Structure formats: C-alpha cells, structure tokens
Amino acid sequence: MRRNHPKIRGFTLVELLVVIAIIGILIGMLLPAVQQVREAARRTECANKLRQITLACHNYESAHMGFPAGASYSPSPRSEGGGGYSFGPSFYGKILAFIEQNSLYSQMTWRGRSPGYIHEGGGDVNNAGFANRDIVLDAGVLPMIRCPSSSGPDAAQRNADFTYSPFAHYAGVSGCVDPTTFTESRLFDDGYLGIISGSGMMVANTEVGFGMCSDGSSNTMLLGEMSGKLERLITGTYSHVTASGTTHGWLMGTRVDGTPPSLDPSDTTGDDRVFNTVSIRYNINQEPFANELFPGMGSNVGANNPLNSDHAGGVNVSLADGSVHFLGEDTQLESLKKLATRDDGQVLESIF
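Predicted structure:
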C-alpha cells in the first residue's frame, strides 16, 4: 500500500534573514541592559573598596587619635640636590598595615631619601638623580585603591627604563577653595599648581581628629574618587586624572613641611606639590581639563583637579563617619565645598 507523507516545508532565504534580523534587534536591545548591570556591579565594587580604605583610616585614627595626614614630607635632603626636603609618603603609606599590606608596611623607609617615591630618583635615566635612586618600596599595583570602572592605565611610564609607581584612584579631601557662603582663610596659593586648602580632614602634614570636625563626621567628606578621563582643551584629547596626578603614584606625598596657609615655611625650591589629596574648587567631572580656563588643574598634579570617574553621572565619596555615597555630577558646587570643610558651621540636608 502506498502511503502519502506530508511535505515538510523549509525556510526560505527571506524568512531566515528576517529571523536573524529579529535576533539581532533583540540582542541590541539587551546589550545596553547587560552593560548597565555590569557597570552597576563595578560601581558597587568601587564603593566597597572606598569603604575599606575609609575603615583603614578610621583604624589609624583609633590608634593615633587622628586621621593620617593626607600627605607628609621627609626631613631628608632631596636626593637630586637643591634646597628643600624630599617627598614623604601619602596617607596610603600610613594605612598599609590596616589594608592587609603588612609586608609592604614593614618595608617602608620613613626618613630616607624621598620615601614618597616607590622607585626614588630624579625622573628618568637621563637625570643625574636617577643614578642615586633608592628602591624605597617593592610594590606594584594595589587593586584595593583602583576603581574597576577606570579605563586608564595602572601607572605612567616616563620611558622604557623608568616607570612611576601605580596610581591611586581615591584622594584625601583637604578642604575647599573660594566658598561663597562662608569664609575660608586656610589656603595656600601655589600659583600654577593651584590653591591648596587645610580646611578638610586629610590635610598636608597634620593629623586631624574628630575633635576638630565641628560640623560632624556625617557632614564632612574624607575621601573622593578621581579615576576617570576628562577631555582637554583640544577636542578629542583626554587625560586620565587620578588622585596621584598623571605621572606619579599612590605613595607620593609632599616635600613641604607646613600646613595651609603656611605650607612651605622652610622650602626654597618652589615645589609645593601635594599628591593624593584634593582641594575642592570645581564641579564633579568638570571639563575641559585645562589650566588656561580653570586654574589649579594640572597633568603632573593639580591641587584643584575635579573629582571624576568613569561611572555614569558622578563619583563615589566617603564621609568621616565611614559611610560611602554616590554624588551626582549635578551636585551644586557650593554644597560640595561645604561637604569638604570640617568646620564651616553649615550642615547640609538631602545632598545624597
């Protein structure tokens, strides 16, 4: 007996192309959502890292009755000659033992030639100071102090033979500059490098305790994020603006021995740079990154480089009470300055 089998109709080329197109559209619709989920996870990881660093600063405060100085000097002479002191360490050097980096902490040379340089020297191999450099600390990238969303390099390389220490992405907030609703006089004007403040919690060469924070620890910033890239004056050119500047590293402090307004009473070099701290002067993610338009912005280091990140729309910051918050780039500048000052007498409401 002959049986009739039903004919199986195949896809035409047009139908196949339509199906592929629909799948492509669905993937295109889902991809941004997936990217947003991934960025949300990275932002949360960034906040957790900032929380751990803030906790380390709190543990230091408990042991020393004050938060670590944002940057310190070394009383040793400069290794490459000239007047003035050597660069001392940033606050990161002081809290290594509190972020599970005891082995690095035990290697620290607090009074050597420029303990603020991990590979100390006068710049690159063509500089006379390089031949006399001291290997102060055998350290590489510390993932704890790097934002996972950052698109920037781990460190700056001057040439094939000399690499600066890796960047830090979280800066100690040393205060604010030029507020309009209160008076601030603890300011040192470095000229080209910007205005350095001493009104915050993480100032140069001074350990600020809770007793000096009359605004309250929940109303005062401790650390702010500096991990993104900002467009320069020439369209299409960008700088990765970190807490360590763009050519130095996380251990770098300062070589001047005072605190604003008297930042450099003994310095004769005119080198008043203070690394791994920030004095709030501009809006979050302020562009263009140009000293010509915004004095105090600088590639080597700028005292007033803006808080910035590669997160969408803002940055993570921590307060002196240990909490971590996300500040949008639409935060009013004056509110940001109040938050950066420990004793301006003005308590902010509903900023977060």
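Summary: Helices lie at 13-64, 91-95, 102-107, 333-340.
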